[in-house]
């Protein structure tokens, strides 16, 4: 097969629509289930009655409105992290890349924490988180590159250093501020979706949907870049502009999510890996489907934190629960991938 033929791919409109439709159905089911799950009523039957009946109970309606905003924020966060994971794994040519591991989330957390500690909660927190995510992305990429060669496993090592540096600075700063400020930052960093205001969800939706939309629009060029920079350039792709645009969009999505939910790992790693085993590596298909399934996965994980409230008498941080669930799943996926590559 020639490079041009490979670049064109075998993706058909029917397959794309079918997979996206399946992902959309999974997200809708996850949204309905997540809205109906909590530490108390309303349950699924009552939730459906509130959603589709005009004479619903006012107290149930109020509870569902709060849950709906939380569920929507979780869906946006999961979609952003999964889509960014797909893009980072392709651009960095490393299947272990994700916003948490390569330091993107760490950079966003560092500048976001500085904004919270010294400026207080406000519109500057998302701006600071975006600046931190972008700065960490380009620093990690530049530090891991050797000559004209793209980074390989070194990207993970640099990402670990960036995360360690960010964690050390944040820990140091927490010792210099009042206890309530340190507790506010700690609560933010462990990964909580919380109960946001409508304006907050609207702003995150604007940033995330814009960033993911740009990534989907770039996906045909990203598909060609998987052949190598030289081959993509011969096929008419402006490689450097595409790479910078994709990284900026990924940083915007990550910064918007981290600013409101804190650090949530493994979504951007496990969801793309699991779907890649089924759908293949083509980002034209993988990216939109991963965004839909990533949103569904984080919705259900956050719903599980609410369902566990009667057991622990508090809500488990969704970031911690994602790590507990995601780590063993990723090990299983990795072992399957390694067995397949050796066969």
Low-confidence stretches: 1-9
CATH class: Mainly Alpha
Q: How many structural domains in the coordinates?
A: 1
CA-based gyration radius: 20 Å
Q: Tell me the distance between the termini.
A: 23 Å
Written as H for each helix and E for each strand, in order along the chain, the element string is: HHHHHHHHHHHHHHH
Just name the CATH architecture: Orthogonal Bundle
CATH topology annotation: ABC transporter involved in vitamin B12 uptake, BtuC
Number of E-state strands: 0
> Judging from the principal axes of the Cα atoms, what is the shape?
globular
Average residue-wise pLDDT: 81
Superfamily (CATH H level) name: ABC transporter involved in vitamin B12 uptake, BtuC
> Could you describe the largest sheet, including whether it forms a barrel?
none
Helical/strand content category: mainly alpha
Strand content: under 5%
What's the helix count? 15
Share of helix among residues? over 70%
3D architecture notes:
It is a single chain. This protein has 343 residues and is an all-alpha fold. The chain has a single domain, classed as ABC transporter involved in vitamin B12 uptake, BtuC. Helices cover 78% and strands 0% of the residues. It has helices spanning 3-8, 13-36, 44-52, 58-91, 104-119, 124-144, 154-174, 179-189, 198-225, 229-234, 239-261, 267-279, 283-307, 309-312, 318-342. The longest helix is centred in the first third of the chain and has 34 residues, at 58-91.
């Amino acid at each position: 097969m020639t490079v041009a033929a490979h670049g064109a791919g075998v993706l058909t409109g029917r397959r794309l629509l079918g997979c996206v439709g399946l992902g959309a159905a999974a997200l809708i089911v996850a949204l309905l289930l997540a809205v109906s799950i909590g530490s108390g009523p309303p349950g699924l039957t009552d939730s459906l009655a509130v959603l589709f009946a005009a004479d619903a109970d006012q107290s149930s309606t109020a509870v569902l409105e709060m849950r709906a905003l939380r569920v929507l924020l979780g869906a946006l966060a999961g979609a952003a992290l999964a889509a960014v994971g797909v893009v980072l794994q392709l651009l960095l040519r490393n299947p272990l890349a994700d916003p948490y591991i390569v330091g993107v989330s760490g950079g966003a957390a560092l500048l976001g924490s500085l904004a919270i500690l010294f400026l207080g909660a406000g519109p500057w927190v998302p701006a600071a988180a975006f600046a931190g995510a972008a700065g960490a992305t380009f620093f990690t990429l530049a530090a891991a590159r050797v000559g004209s060669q793209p980074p390989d496993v070194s990207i993970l090592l640099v990402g670990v250093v960036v995360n360690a540096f960010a964690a050390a600075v944040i820990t140091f700063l927490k010792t210099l501020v009042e206890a309530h400020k340190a507790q506010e930052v700690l609560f933010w960093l462990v990964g909580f979706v919380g109960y946001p205001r409508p304006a907050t969800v609207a702003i995150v939706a604007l940033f995330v949907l814009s960033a993911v939309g740009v990534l989907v629009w770039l996906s045909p060029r990203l598909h060609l870049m998987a052949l190598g920079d030289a081959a993509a350039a011969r096929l008419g792709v402006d490689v450097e502009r595409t790479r910078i645009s994709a990284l900026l969009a990924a940083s915007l999505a990550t910064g918007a999510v981290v600013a409101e939910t804190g650090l949530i790992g493994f979504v951007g790693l496990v969801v793309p890996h699991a779907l890649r085993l089924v759908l293949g590596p083509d980002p034209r298909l993988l990216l939109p489907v991963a965004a839909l399934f990533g949103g569904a996965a984080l919705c259900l994980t956050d719903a599980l934190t609410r369902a566990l409230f009667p057991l622990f008498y508090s809500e488990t941080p969704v970031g911690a629960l994602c790590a507990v669930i995601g780590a063993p799943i990723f090990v299983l996926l990795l072992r399957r991938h390694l067995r397949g590559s050796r066969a």
